[in-house]
Specification:
Length: 350
């Protein structure tokens, strides 16, 4: 039985069923007496269904999610949405404007959830986001990229022991799903403790719009909304293969300070102790090998050649079945290589 929704209330505003609206939420008061606002776009479908939030730029310089959400909001498909979508392309407005991960009090928002109205500036923003967005939702997707010159293969991080979260993670369609531990203070942990299933998308690097992660991310949200019954099922079955499920991951670190010369590509399957790269010096007099800590797939890689000993250079997701992994990665790469060639013939963005 299809039931019409009641109006959706957020930040003191009421949105009738079948309407969409942008609501400005006062995120914090600044020392120049002005309020700083967080823009929240709500699409409130006519028919009842789940309420999903999408959050971008919790780390203000990780902007692929901003573009993923922008592209998504343009889709006509959302006119037939069941339930409610709460899209917050820029959670950390301070960081987005200043091109930094942090807030003005130099704190990392993703270490301060669930926050407190009586806490620091960062804690207050976390608390407002929990109250106005997370607490009104039944599910969530949080968008991130690699930090600090690190480029991430498109991947989902999620608590796989939770069946609802696992279904969302597998439906998203990234080549790798990582069963990642919950970090204290993260939005993922705060949502988990409130029993709100949340998956985290990682792809590309900070301060860039990376075409492939953006395409994977946009398509992934649509797949999850279909899986949750908020959008009609796809007419054609998605050709993307089943993701690789990785139970753990380890960073290979620079074995010396110097110049990092990688020997592997993102998405490459590696075996334990395989050489991932060398660290040399400007005169080429020294050469230190960096070997893989485990068998797996490279899901993150340092883009800068300048390293100190101990710096994280290659992120290896541990996998047990190398054949399945190879098939998944090959299929992902051929699909997106083809798509990026096609894109050269297209005009601009989607
Ligand atoms: Zn991040």
């Amino acid at each position: 039985m299809k039931r019409e929704q009641s109006p959706f209330c957020i930040a003191g505003e009421e949105i009738p069923p079948g309407h969409r609206r942008t609501v400005n939420i006062a995120a914090a008061k600044m020392y120049n007496r002005n309020e700083l606002y967080m823009d929240v776009h709500v699409i409130h479908g006519r028919i009842q269904g789940p309420t999903v939030f999408l959050s971008g730029a919790v780390h203000g310089d990780e902007i692929n999610g901003v573009e993923i959400i922008r592209r998504l909001l343009k889709m006509k498909l959302l006119n037939s949405l069941r339930g409610t979508l709460i899209a917050v392309p820029v959670v950390n407005t301070f960081g987005f404007v200043n091109r930094t991960r942090y807030l003005p009090d130099r704190r990392d928002l993703n270490r301060f959830f669930p926050g407190s109205p009586k806490g620091s500036l960062t804690g207050q923003l976390a608390a407002i986001f929990m109250e106005e967005v997370v607490d009104r939702s039944t599910h969530g997707i949080d968008f991130h990229t690699g930090a600090n010159f690190r480029y991430n293969l498109p991947q989902i991080r999620a608590v796989i022991s939770d069946p609802v979260i696992k279904d969302m993670a597998m439906a998203f369609g990234t080549p790798v799903v990582l069963d990642a531990e919950l970090r204290d203070g993260s939005l993922r942990k705060a949502a988990y403790e409130k029993n709100i299933p949340l998956i985290l998308f990682e792809g590309g690097q900070s301060m860039q719009f990376d075409p492939i992660p953006i395409r994977v991310g946009t398509r992934g949200v649509v797949s999850v909304l279909r899986q949750l019954g908020m959008l009609p099922k796809a007419k054609q079955k998605n050709k993307c293969t089943q993701p690789i499920l990785a139970r753990n991951s380890t960073w290979a670190r620079a074995s010396a300070s110097g110049i990092f010369l990688p020997h592997v590509q993102l998405g490459e399957i590696v075996t334990k102790k395989q050489i991932l790269g060398l660290v040399t010096d400007p005169l080429g007099e020294s050469e230190h090998k960096i070997t893989s800590p485990s068998s797996g797939v490279i899901i993150g890689k340092l883009q800068s050649p300048l390293v100190h000993k101990g710096d994280a250079v290659c992120h290896v997701a541990g996998i047990s079945d190398m054949d399945i992994a190879e098939t998944a990665i090959d299929s992902f790469q051929s699909e997106f290589e083809f798509e990026s060639k096609m894109q050269q013939y297209e005009e601009g963005y989607l």
